[in-house]
Amino acid sequence: MRNLKILIFIAFCTLSCNKEQKSPNFIFIYTDDQRFDTVGIIGNNQVITPNLDKLAKSGAVLSNAYNMGGWHGAVCVASRAMIISGKSVWRAKDEVSRPIEEQESVISNTWPRLFKKDGYRTYMSGKWHVNLPVKKLFDVVANERPGMPDDNRVEFSKQFNVWKKDSGDLNELADFMPPGYGRPIDENDNSWSPSDSIFGGFWKGGKHWSEVIADDAIDFIDDSKKFDNPYFMYLAFNAPHDPRQAPKRFLDMYPMDKINVPVNYSSIHPYWKDIGNGPGRRDESLAPYPRSKYAVKKHIQEYFAVITHLDEQVGKIISHLEDQNMLDNTYIIFTSDHGLAVGQHGLIGKQSLYDHSIRVPMIISGPKIKKGLRFNEDVYLQDIVPTTLDLAKITVPKGIDFKSFYKLIVNRENKKIHDGIYGTFGCCQANYVDFQRMIRKDGYKLMLFPKIKRVELYNLNDDPFETTNLAEKKDYKPKVKALFEDLIIMQKMMKDTLNLKTIFNNKI
Question: How remote is the C-alpha of 196 from its chain's centroid?
């Protein structure tokens, strides 16, 4: 009898241990508009991110994580639809566009629902921006936030039409726009302050939205202790999206004379109208045309300040996990929905396929992740969906389009995840033009601008800032042709119906 009890005890312990190993917690931290090079330890000695640096040291960094792009100017909509549905860009568009009566089949296979089916308690706070009812996807929703707070969208549209009619001078844009747009004109322009709550924005409600989300996360962690279930947490910060607001002490960390103009700075993109980046694009109207060096530096200052403020909030979440003895059994994933130009290539926004707009930071730490790893393999940021399912030992459904990089970060199997990275901006809709297509493969990037039939090729190993177009050089014609054919194949895989062969018939 005594031996039997011992055996039962051992079996119970084994089951308990296996259960513990099988059910780690997951905290997904999703920022907005954050470029890949805005974490100090990843390669930027200007930006101050001590907590993200610490997180990166405690886990793995995926240096080449990409968003596929988007089907209209709100690229974040596409990115978030992809990560929630697990579908590639054009399939995700179809999924979230279904009528209400057909949504349940979509909802039941979303990322949080897959965790919920496996017994996880699911939490959400922050920016949603997906055309699905968030409260049907998560057990607890604390503060669902819109894409932007009081963004003056209606006022902007009206004023933009006035400007288009009355002004032929691009420098006069600020005279027609709501506060926060078309600025700064010069060093004396004090029309807007990122630290003054009078301008609302992320100060609306009396507390900065980044602080609200951090507080919600701490409440979620405390609430989870009431349940035996592991938890999946989706924390979607609006920062560092505009209006890029932060307390003054964070702005003071970035004196204007210490800020560098980007290597690939340009006062204006030579094809801005034809690639979908004119002043009618809301993001691009944040700074005057042409972009002065001072204006670019001012936007970088505010961008870095809100990132450092965001970093402090991430630190609060991690500290609370430590205090509650949860850190060792929790995977923390940090990434962003896409990047941002902020003065690179003459652009301010994210509606392009240059690396600054599609490449994002990707950090993951947790029980099975060895400290201090860095991987250069090309991945989509949405690959985190099947990867987390693998880490949780949840079966990945057949309908997930993205690929797990579990074997890369856990087993360190050095195998190619994707045979190239696809990118798109524009849409096959009546009110949008197919402005851009891209493929990144084997260290090269081919960019196509269908409206003007322009071809650009970059050697990213030698030219990471994408400044020297190799497409017209004779020696690179075979590379252009090969990448073009690979892109055609990828289009078919992605259900992309744009006929590039017809458009570029005599160019490639």
Answer: 27
Please give the structure tokens belonging to residue 311.
């970093």
* Rounded Cα–Cα distance for residues 87 and 94 (Å): 9
Q: What share of the chain is helix, strand, coil (3-state, %, to 5)?
A: 40, 15, 45
**What are the residue boundaries of the structural domains of the chain, listed by start?**
24-149+204-409, 434-503
Under the banding of pLDDT at 50, 70 and 90, the label for residue 415 is confident
Longest pairwise C-alpha distance within the chain: 94
What is d(CA 241, CA 502) in angstroms, rounded to the nearest whole number?
Answer: 37
pTM of the model: 0.92
Q: Can you name the CATH fold of 24-149+204-409?
A: Alkaline Phosphatase, subunit A (3.40.720)
Which CATH number describes the domain made up of 434-503?
A: 3.30.1120.10
- In the chain, pLDDT over 90 holds for what percent of residues? 73
Element (H, E) at 135: helix 134-137
- Report how far Cα 173 is from the mean position of its chain's Cα atoms: 28
Instruction: Produce one character per residue of 80-108: b if its CB has 16 or more CB atoms within 10 Å, e if not.
Output: bbbbbbbbbbbbbbebbeeeeeebeebbe
